[in-house]
């Protein structure tokens, strides 16, 4: 049996980096991707596993996605796990009533169209795996159940990602391609920060 191959987006820091580290310890070959190749290379070197392969990937750039697809096709001829982790704009500073729609659009480009395009592009390689799966890193902020005001760009993008997950899961179930969304909970990353005071999932003044 060959070691499984996993692709992690936004893996130079935060949750993507830690997921890469842990999967590498479980004998996965990891395509540790970042929009900056030097950052991917630095993270792979710091984590130190020979099974961590740095690669450039900007999830908003179709040419970047296509180039990585061609590399994976050439080197592995399959992909076992796609982890759509990269995301932006946890916009605690704005509300839906007055949100900057350019910020909302940017969030959708990275947090929804990025994972969507990756799923579409890598499906043929996932179909070559014996146990293919897609993991979309979402957030409780995208759950419609209990959704209130605040963080509009982020919450709407994660709600859309959840909807995409449901659709892909239904459409790919017959092919035994498992598609899930996960919420990692509050994690001390650049996005999550080191501490806060929250009510109903929203930051409030101390
Ligand atoms: P983070 O520390 O802010 O890291 C985000 C990662 O995404 C970085 O590597 C960043 O790269 C990358 N990225 C942004 N835009 C990209 C693009 N266009 N192409 C490729 N990579 C891009 O975030 P995190 O806390 O690790 O979050 C990871 C995931 O968990 C996200 O989906 C987030 O929504 C979710 N999540 C996090 C928390 C939390 O508490 N931290 C809670 C719930 C859900 P650069 O370094 O180049 O910017």
Rough shape? Answer: globular
The beta-strand count equals 8
Question: How large is the share of residues in beta strands?
Answer: 15-25%
Order of the strands making up the biggest sheet: 3-2-1-4-5-6
* Spans of at least 5 consecutive residues with low confidence: none
Offer a few descriptive terms.
single chain; 206 residues; alpha/beta; 6-stranded parallel beta sheet; two-stranded antiparallel sheet; 16% strand; globular; binds NADP nicotinamide-adenine-dinucleotide phosphate
Q: What is the topological layout?
A:
Blueprint: E1 5-8, H1 14-25, E2 29-34, H2 37-47, E3 52-56, H3 62-75, E4 81-84, H4 101-126, E5 133-137, H5 152-172, E6 178-182, E7 198-199, E8 202-203
Parallel strand pairs: 1-2, 1-4, 2-3, 4-5, 5-6
Antiparallel strand pairs: 7-8
Bound molecules: NADP nicotinamide-adenine-dinucleotide phosphate.
Summarize the entry for a quick read.
This protein is of the alpha/beta class. It contains 5 helices and 8 strands; from the N terminus they run βαβαβαβαβαβββ.
């Amino acid at each position: 049996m060959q070691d499984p191959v996993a692709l992690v987006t936004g893996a130079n820091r935060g949750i993507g980096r830690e997921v890469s580290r842990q999967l590498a310890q479980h004998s996965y070959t990891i395509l540790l991707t970042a929009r900056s190749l030097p950052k991917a290379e630095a993270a792979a070197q710091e984590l130190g596993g020979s099974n961590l392969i740095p690669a450039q990937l900007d999830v908003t750039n179709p040419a970047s996605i296509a180039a990585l697809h061609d590399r994976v096709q050439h080197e592995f001829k399959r992909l076992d796990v796609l982890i759509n982790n990269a995301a932006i704009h946890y916009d605690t500073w704005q509300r839906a009533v007055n949100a900057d729609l350019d910020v909302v659009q940017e969030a959708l480009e990275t947090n929804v169209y990025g994972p969507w395009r990756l799923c579409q592009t890598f499906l043929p390689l996932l179909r070559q795996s014996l146990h293919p799966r897609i993991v979309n890193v979402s957030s409780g902020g995208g759950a419609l159940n209990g959704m209130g005001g605040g963080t509009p760009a982020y919450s709407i993008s994660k709600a859309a990602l959840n909807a995409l997950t449901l659709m892909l899961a239904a459409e790919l179930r017959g092919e035994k391609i498992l598609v899930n969304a996960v919420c990692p909970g509050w994690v001390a990353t650049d996005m999550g920060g080191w501490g806060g005071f929250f009510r109903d999932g929203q930051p409030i003044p101390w």
